[in-house]
Design a protein that fits this description.
Chain B: Pfam families: Complex1_51K, NADH_4Fe-4S, SLBB. Chain B: It comes from Geomonas paludis. Chain B: Belongs to the complex I 51 kDa subunit family. The complex is a heterodimer of chains A (157) and B (420). Chain A is an alpha+beta fold and 157 residues long. Chain A folds into two domains: 58 residues, Arc Repressor Mutant, subunit A; 81 residues, Glutaredoxin (3-Layer(aba) Sandwich). Chain A contains seven helices and four strands; from the N terminus they run ααααβααβββα. Chain A has a four-stranded mixed beta sheet, with helices on one face. In chain A, strand 3 and strand 4 form a beta hairpin. Chain A is elongated and about 45 Å long. Chain B is an alpha/beta fold and 420 residues long. Chain B has three domains: 211 residues, Rossmann fold; 92 residues, Ubiquitin-like (UB roll); 89 residues, NADH-ubiquinone oxidoreductase 51kDa subunit, iron-sulphur binding domain (de novo design (two linked rop proteins), Up-down Bundle), CATH 1.20.1440. Chain B contains 18 helices and eight strands. Classes of the chains: A alpha+beta (157), B alpha/beta (420). At the A-B interface, helix 2 and helix 5 of A face helix 5, strand 5, strand 8 and helix 14 of B.
């Protein structure tokens, strides 16, 4: 169950939309921020807020790269594997991340801190190879820089 | 140089509202609202020769002219900032330095089209750009340049931000309209085209960020001035080129339309990296065909690049050197498209993974001569899909088979990647 204040603010967002479902992505993002991922309960709640069936929310939720329908770590690492990052040897960075975190792509670290996912072009092509951690973009990655970033992100709230 | 888009940029921060105004910002809007009719504004854009900067290169003024003005109900304008074409980062750089040209350009476009409510559709990951726009919109409203009764006139225009959640297909205009409506973002069938029936079934124009950001300078300085910015006689205006890959300085630069490929790489980007030799480049984002060393002096404009067998596209130039295997590069591109296919139509959903499978086989030394024929068939038949995603995916593959067939065959004959 979401807190009353969040529910009220989401209701206000839906009320300000031209049609209720126009607010669907915003509502899913807010619920995800609250639960950590878009839980089954969150899908039900989103459906009630938007006047949609849970299935209609489901078909939206599964479409978007940044909506997670399975549990993820506290911070999700999206590492770009598109062409400009490929030119900048992103394969090595991805391998380094896998080794360092001890997970494959799609995996979550044993301590529940990080989930590692590949992603499509982040628009950081001028600073490739690139990744984002918990929504914060980082570029010109080297193994040393990855170490620093993960250490800092681990302690940043 | 007095090019319209980056002239307000500061090196490491966003330009302020006051700085933008002191440097001639919002002069186009003032000019339009003190004596130009909406038709005059549309005519200026038509005469300027401005073409869509998102990739397709369609004449902006013509696109606007398709919108019927006599239908009841609202009309809509959407700015497409779903910049997810691999190798493309120009809209991000522009908006992180200056949100005002887009805000002013959208207000002018709304005025020309008779739109009261417009949306900016922004991809996930561009939160900094979105924050700049949100702040810029507030400032413009306070100054009477946006919102109710703009500059004291009877015109009111509302702008809204829509922050997406990441998916390449949302950049396709009809998929984008579905996304904005809160529906699953599969593309819609055309016709009806968005200009007739788009957002909530109303007439809708979808324009790229860079396209709309050019409008203020066109209105302020006139169509002839804009045309004169290009280096080639047929061209018009400037273009943002965002370069990545094997160059010394990977940069997003604004250059006149018609600047040669060689001048972009050697001039703006300081040449090739580590003394490497230029092998090929993709000139306009992932869904364009390769250009080769023989195109070094090619003026970069829509028609000239099309004549050379590729497309100017988004201006996302990805540079490959002699150490890059173009089979593997193409495989990377196909992998992107296969993953981003929305799955709505069968040829795209099934065809792209199959092409990926074949290219993987070839790259790993398990390809057969017949594979080249099968790939060619896919280049042909994946043009018959619901939207432009699969044909776009086939562009680099078509280029690979056209320009680098020997390299592909080398993989098959030697039973390994010759560059590994």
């Amino acid at each position: 169950m979401i807190p009353e204040t969040l529910k009220k603010s989401l209701q206000a967002r839906v009320a300000s939309a031209i049609t209720a479902r126009e607010a669907a992505v915003d509502v899913m993002k807010e619920l995800q921020a609250h639960y950590g991922w878009l839980t089954d309960e969150a899908v039900q709640e989103a459906a009630a807020l938007l006047g949609l069936s849970p299935l209609q929310v489901e078909e939206l939720a599964t479409f978007y790269e940044m909506i997670y329908r399975r549990p993820v770590g506290k911070k999700v690492i999206h590492v770009c594997d598109s062409i400009s990052c490929w030119c900048a040897d992103c394969d090595k960075i991805i391998q380094y991340l896998k080794d360092k975190l001890g997970v494959g792509l799609g995996g979550t670290t044993a301590d529940g801190m990080f989930t590692l996912l590949p992603c499509c072009c982040m628009g950081m092509c001028g600073d490739s190879p690139a990744m984002s951690v918990g929504g914060v973009p980082y570029g010109r990655l080297t193994p040393e820089l990855v170490d620093e970033i993960l250490e800092a992100e681990r302690h940043k709230v | 140089m007095d090019l319209p888009l980056f002239r307000h940029n500061r090196p490491n921060r966003v330009v302020t509202f006051d700085e933008y105004r002191e440097e001639g910002g919002f002069e186009g809007l003032k000019k339009a609202f003190s004596g130009m009719s909406p038709n005059d504004v549309q005519q200026a854009v038509l005469d300027s020769g401005l073409r869509g900067r998102g990739g397709a290169g369609f004449a902006t003024g013509r696109k606007w002219s398709f919108v019927p003005r006599d239908l009841p109900g609202p009309r809509w304008l959407i700015c497409n900032c779903d910049e997810m074409e691999p190798g493309t980062y120009k809209d991000r750089v522009l908006l992180e330095h200056n949100p005002y040209s887009l805000i002013e350009g959208m207000t002018l476009a709304c005025y020309a089209l008779g739109v009261r409510h417009a949306f900016i559709f922004i991809r996930k990951g561009y939160e900094k750009a979105a924050a700049n726009l949100a702040r810029g919109m507030e400032e413009a409203k306070k100054a009477g340049l946006l919102g109710e009764h703009i500059l004291g006139s009877e015109h009111s225009i509302e702008l809204d931000l829509h922050l997406s959640a990441g998916r390449y297909i949302c950049g396709e205009e009809t998929a984008l309209i579905n996304a904005l409506e809160g529906k699953r973002p599969n593309p819609r069938s055309k016709p009806p085209f968005p200009a007739i029936k788009g957002l909530w079934q109303g007439p809708t124009v979808v324009n790229n960020v860079e396209t709309l950001a050019n409008v203020p300078a066109i209105v302020a300085n006139g169509a002839a001035w804009f045309k004169g910015l290009a280096l080639n006689p047929e061209g018009a205006g400037s273009k943002l080129f965002c370069v990545s890959g094997s160059v010394k300085n990977r940069a997003c630069v604004e250059l006149p339309i018609g600047t040669t490929l060689g001048d972009i790489i050697d001039g703006a980007c300081g040449g090739m990296r580590d003394g490497k030799k230029f092998k090929a480049c993709i000139p306009g984002g992932a869904s364009t065909q390769f250009l080769k060393p023989e195109h070094w002096n090619l003026p970069m404009d829509y028609d000239t690049v099309a004549k050379a067998g590729s497309r100017l596209g988004s201006g996302g130039v990805i540079v490959f050197d002699e150490g890059h295997c173009l089979v593997e590069a193409t495989l990377n591109l196909i992998n992107f498209f296969a993953r981003e296919s929305c799955g709505w139509c069968t040829p795209c959903r099934e065809g792209l993974p199959y092409v990926k499978e074949i290219l993987t086989r070839i790259e790993n030394g398990r390809g057969e001569e017949d594979d080249i024929t099968i790939l060619r068939e896919h280049v042909k038949y994946l043009n018959y899909t619901f939207c432009a995603l699969a044909p776009g995916a086939m562009a680099p593959l078509d280029g690979l088979l056209r320009d680098f067939e020997d390299e592909v065959r080398d993989h098959i004959v030697k039973k390994k990647c010759p560059l590994k």
